[in-house]
Structures are given as C-alpha cells and as structure tokens.
Amino acid sequence: MDTLLLKNNIDDIRYAATLIRDGQVVGIPTETVYGLGADASNEEAVRMVFAAKGRPADNPLIVHLADFSDAVKYTSAIPELAHKLAERFCPGPLTMVMPKNERIPMVTSGGLDTVGIRVPSHPVMHSIIELSGCAVAAPSANTSGYPSPTSAEHVMRDMNGKIAAVVDGGQSEFGVESTVISFDGEDAVRILRPGAVTREMLLEVCGEVIIDPAILNEVGEGAKVASPGMKYKHYSPKADIIMVESSLADFAELVGDNYGDGVYALVFDGDEEGFPYRHLTYGADSSMQAHWLFQRLRELDDIGAEKVYVRAPSTDGVGLAVYNRLIRAAGFEVIRI
Ligand code: TXA
Ligand code: MG
C-alpha cells in the first residue's frame, strides 16, 4: 500500500476523517509532534497503530478529543482539578491521565485501567477529530525508539507503505510531545513526561506539582513505573549521542580531544563563533531548542554522524522537556565538566 500525502484543505481533511472513521491509520499534525491516529474504540485499528510503529503492547496510547467536555464519554471519574486544568490549558499540549471506562478498549490503554486524555489545539487535528466523530488514539508517528516527527516528511519516511495516509499540516509548533500528568490527591499532580505546559505553569493552578524521578533518572530493569513510556529507549537517532554539561570552552576542548570521522557537535545558536568543529545548532533558548531538537537529531543521521556531543540544555521551563528527551536519546550518557 502506498501512503497518500494529503494537504491542508477541507476536502483532504474530510477524507482523512473518513479514513479514521473507517478503521484506517492516518498520520496527523498536532501542535506538539505528528501523531499516528486511529479510532480509539476500534481494537483492530489500534492494533494497526502498534504494528506500524513496532510499539510494545503495554505502552498506552493517548486519546485525543475535540473538546474537553467529551472526556466524560471515555472516563469513569474526572477530578475537580482536571476541570480547572482544562479551563487553563485545553486545547493545548497537556495530557491528563484518568480512570478509563469501557469505551476505551484494553489494547488502547496498554492493559491499564486509565487513559491519557488530550485536546490538541492544531486546527487541522481539531477538524479531523470533529469530522471523524471518533475519539482519536494517537502516539507520536515515529518508528518506536526513533525521534518523534515534526513534519509530514518525517512521518512519510518512517511510515510510507505502513499506513493509509499522512496529512501535511506544516512544521509542528512546539516540537516536543505533550506534558503528561496524573493526579495525586485533591490539589496535586505528578508530571510523568515534561512538555510545553511547564511545572511553573501547572503551579498556577495546582497546589503541588511533583516531578516523577524517572523524568531525569534511568529506571532499573523491571522497576515499577508510573508511565510505561518511561521504561523504553527513546528518541534515539542512529548516531551515538553524548550529552555534555559544561562551559562552551570545556565543551570545545572535549570535542577537540575526541574529534575524528563521523564526530559532530550539537550546540546552541550563538556558540558557532570560534567553534572549529563540524556542528549543527538547535536554538538559543528552551522554546527554540524544543522546536528544533527532533529535526536536528534526524538531520544528524542524514549527514552520517556517528558520534554527537550535545551541549546540555537548561532544565528550567520547557527546557526540562528538552533535557528529558536528550538524556534518553543519549541512553543516560552524560559528561559533566
Ligand atoms: O504530544 C503528544 O502527546 C503526542 C501527540 C501525537 O499528541 N503523542 C505522544 O504519544 O507523544 P506517545 O504515545 O508517543 O507518548 C505517550 C506517552 C507514553 O510515554 C505513554 O507511556 C504515556 O504517554 N501514557 C499514555 N497513556 C498513559 C496512561 N494511561 N498512564 C500513564 N502513562 C500514559
Ligand atoms: Mg512517542
């Protein structure tokens, strides 16, 4: 099967919605990254999503809705705090984990009795959900383990021949996946995966925001985790990634000492001057770094990088999301100078 490339116009958007309603899998644009969408209630369609990605069956899919008011149809209890958070952050890059009901099959929830609910803000995604009449289950549209796709071209590269269509909705705005949270008592949430809705932003609505330790630390084999995605190797290009926390001068010295064929650096915008080694840049501040990170990791593979030294981002604000993705891409290999 050839994968159709659909455009951002009403006929193509309608067609994509029809495909999803008919049990097909479609690559769809969101404001975070591209997703691999299917009818969340259709077990057969959801199985096709897992197969296309090569995703472990115990890693649950996020369920996307056109409006937060639809959450009652797929959950068995909605905390008061979820309503408050939805008022402030929906639509947008926030996923809230809540108890699911029987309309979400176990295949979709990876065998858990909870479901992650998200209301995306991308207008194309919003229209597709609304026109399909479905709750749309969608993981990121990459091959499992590879960096998430931030353009239709990335999705095509990973999924051509495996899914019915991809809708081109332009470059993803945020560039990292949504913030995933669960509820911890009446006024507290736990961040399971950091994203563009930051700890600082959540604190404007919640009394307490707990950062799950697995966000910055490797979880031991067989360890019990709050979110199955924490267990798996993630976001890894083919190149070996090494994260470096140091000054620019120490970074340059380290790269120089280890320089050779296939060695590259990924540095901040503004670092280039006086940096004499092969490199790409990934932004000057945390939002730009989030926007460019996955694109750059894919580019490094395209240019044949084998070993990449990366300047570690700040962990403030959305920087925590960038750091979390990079430390996984690096297999937790960090050099601190
Ligand atoms: O921005 C996003 O969230 C993108 C776009 C397409 O919406 N989707 C995405 O999905 O990143 P995925 O499947 O690549 O990552 C979802 C993460 C996984 O780490 C998964 O383990 C976690 O969310 N997750 C989903 N449902 C969960 C649940 N019920 N309990 C705990 N963690 C859950
Ligand atoms: Mg993913």
Record the SSE blueprint.
Layout: E1 4-6, H1 10-21, E2 26-28, E3 35-39, H2 43-53, E4 62-64, H3 80-89, E5 94-99, E6 114-118, H4 123-132, E7 136-137, H5 152-159, E8 165-167, E9 179-183, E10 188-193, H6 199-202, E11 208-211, E12 240-245, H7 248-257, E13 263-267, E14 279-281, H8 286-302, E15 307-311, H9 319-329, E16 334-336
Parallel strand pairs: 1-8, 2-8, 4-6, 5-9, 10-11, 12-15, 12-16, 13-14, 13-15
Antiparallel strand pairs: 2-3, 3-7, 4-7, 5-6, 9-10
Helix pairs in contact: 1-4, 8-9
The structure holds threonylcarbamoyladenylate (TXA) and magnesium ion (MG).
Features:
337 residues, alpha/beta, DHBP synthase, Rossmann fold, 2 domains, 11-stranded mixed β-sheet, 5-stranded parallel β-sheet, 9 helices, 20% strand, globular, binds threonylcarbamoyladenylate, binds magnesium ion
What does this structure look like?
By secondary structure, the chain is α/β, with parallel strands linked by helices. The chain has 2 domains: 4-215, DHBP synthase; 240-336, Threonylcarbamoyl-AMP synthase, C-terminal domain (Rossmann fold), CATH 3.40.50. It has 9 helices and 16 strands. Strand 2 (26-28) and strand 3 form a beta hairpin. Bound molecules: threonylcarbamoyladenylate and magnesium ion (MG).
Could you say what the CATH topology of the largest domain is called? DHBP synthase
Sheet having the most strands: 11 strands, mixed
Helix coverage percent: 25-40%
Q: Provide the domain count.
A: 2
Residue windows where pLDDT falls under 50 for at least 5 positions: none
Any idea what the radius of gyration is? 20 Å
Measure the end-to-end span.
51 Å
Question: What overall form do the CA principal axes indicate?
Answer: globular
- Beta-strand portion reads 15-25%
- Let me know the average pLDDT: 96
Q: Biggest sheet: strands side by side, in what order?
A: 1-8-2-3-7-4-6-5-9-10-11
Under the CATH scheme, the architecture of the largest domain is: Alpha-Beta Complex
CATH top level class name of the largest domain: Alpha Beta
SSE order: EHEEHEHEEHEHEEEHEEHEEHEHE
